[in-house]
């Protein structure tokens, strides 16, 4: 495998890591960059190329686990009720995450084949990017006018709110809509700060993305050949490193800039791709 081919893996890892958790749709960017420009299917084959995208997604997931490692450990606190080590303050629990995962998890399993066969194209991604942008703008405008207490931290999220955010996350089953864009918007509409909604989005993304990735890898294990391993490894490492950087940057930025700038970027991207591609 030559240097140019490995460079393609690094570029795709960068695209995945830089966009997976920003509200701009990593799936949309991957389809645009890979299917239109790099065309990894030409040298990996269709199914091996799809498996590669799962591998680099695992790199992004690992970055979230590293950044939120203390939070994940805290959610696994099994100290008995009333224990001196057990805090009486409200805290995000594993049950909140499970409740938030249920809607998209069930619909994802039911419609997985239909989505894979019919919705992964430039046309559908552009539709998802545009509609998701409108939803983000509406969320920012409506959220700024919402009265009542503000949820400053994920520890203030109720199970009911977690479930509603999970329902909104179902919109992201349409490629291009963006998981983080939809869930952060849903959280803002419920009265969360952008940072609290982003934290919950990232934490909730780990189990659902990890589960989907592992299932995909089990089904496509035969594509992990010796020839493909350097390409897969380079992409994984690249996605992990760039996801670490982009997540930390995004979390510092999101309360200041909110969602509208990302929505504007998405609309501009739709227009540019439409002109170039069509």
Shape: globular
Percentage of residues assigned to helices: over 70%
Number of domains: 1
Largest sheet properties: none
Strand content: under 5%
Protein name: Undecaprenyl-diphosphatase
Main location: membrane
Membrane topology: Multi-pass membrane protein
GO molecular function: undecaprenyl-diphosphatase activity
Secondary structure: elements and pairs:
Blueprint: H1 3-19, H2 26-38, H3 41-44, H4 46-67, H5 69-75, H6 94-118, H7 122-145, H8 159-169, H9 179-189, H10 194-219, H11 229-257, H12 260-277
Membrane topology: Multi-pass membrane protein
Subcellular location: Cell membrane
Transmembrane segments: 47-68, 94-114, 120-139, 200-218, 224-247, 259-277
What does this structure look like?
The protein has one domain. The protein has 278 residues and is mainly alpha-helical. It has 12 helices and no strands. α4 crosses α10 and α4 packs across α11.
How would you describe this structure in keywords?
single chain, 278 residues, mainly alpha, 0% strand, globular, Undecaprenyl-diphosphatase, membrane, undecaprenyl-diphosphatase activity, transmembrane helix, EC 3.6.1.27
């Amino acid at each position: 495998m030559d240097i140019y081919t490995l460079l393609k893996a690094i570029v795709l890892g960068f695209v995945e890591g830089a966009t997976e958790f920003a509200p701009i749709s990593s799936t949309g960017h991957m389809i645009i960059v890979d299917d239109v420009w790099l065309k990894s299917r030409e040298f990996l084959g269709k199914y091996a190329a799809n498996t590669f995208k799962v591998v680099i997604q695992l790199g992004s997931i690992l970055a979230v686990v590293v950044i939120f490692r203390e939070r994940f450990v805290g959610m696994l606190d099994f100290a008995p009720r009333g224990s001196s080590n057990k805090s009486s303050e409200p805290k995000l629990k594993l049950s909140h995450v499970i409740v938030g995962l249920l809607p998209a998890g069930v619909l994802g399993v039911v419609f997985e084949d239909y989505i894979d066969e019919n919705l992964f194209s430039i046309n559908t991604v552009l539709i998802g990017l545009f509609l998701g942008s409108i939803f983000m703008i509406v969320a920012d405008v409506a959220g700024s006018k919402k009265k009542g207490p503000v949820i400053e931290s994920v520890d203030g999220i109720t199970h009911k709110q977690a479930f509603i955010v999970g329902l909104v996350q179902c919109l992201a089953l349409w490629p291009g809509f963006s998981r983080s864009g939809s869930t952060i918007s849903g959280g803002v509409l419920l009265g969360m700060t952008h940072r609290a909604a982003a934290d919950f989005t990232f934490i909730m993304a780990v189990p659902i993305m990890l589960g989907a990735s592992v299932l995909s890898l089990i089904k496509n294990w035969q594509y992990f050949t010796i020839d493909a391993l350097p390409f897969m490894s380079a992409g994984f490492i690249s996605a992990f490193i760039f996801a670490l950087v982009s997540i930390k940057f995004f979390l510092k930025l999101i309360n200041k800039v909110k969602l509208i700038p990302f929505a504007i970027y998405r609309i501009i991207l739709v227009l540019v791709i439409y002109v170039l591609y069509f």
